[in-house]
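Quick log. Single chain, no ligands specified.
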Amino acid sequence: MKASIHNKIKLYLNANYHRDKKKIVFGAWMGQKFADNPKFLFLETVKSGKFDALWVTKNPDVYSSLKGQGLPVEMDDSEQGIEFQKNAMFFVICTGVRDINQDYIGGATIINQWHGVPLKKVMWDDNINPKFNWFTYRLKTIIDYIPL
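-> predicted structure:
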């Protein structure tokens, strides 16, 4: 609970940072992989040179691999990674905000490249997952929405 409150405070404070429209943060699979749609958009963005792109990861192996290829990469909690995320206007993800360091997305635009078309029931739409408290869910959604 204490970490959650700490994260919310950081999210709110970060919502007031100046965002640079030329900076884009990319991440995938809870920061564990260099994969899927964000990977290919990242490579094209770096190749074009029109934006300042950074891949953010939580996986030291991904970091080493991309660094070895000369690609712009930082660990999600490194000083340079945090500073870039605080100032980036766009975040490109594929599974959710945990693909990057979610503490620094306040006030930014999030582009979710989750592949596929939801022709099936997903998450809380299905009848398999246990029921949850709608009041708590709505309250959390409102609290999270304000800085975003």
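Residues 10 and 103 are 6 Å apart (CA to CA).
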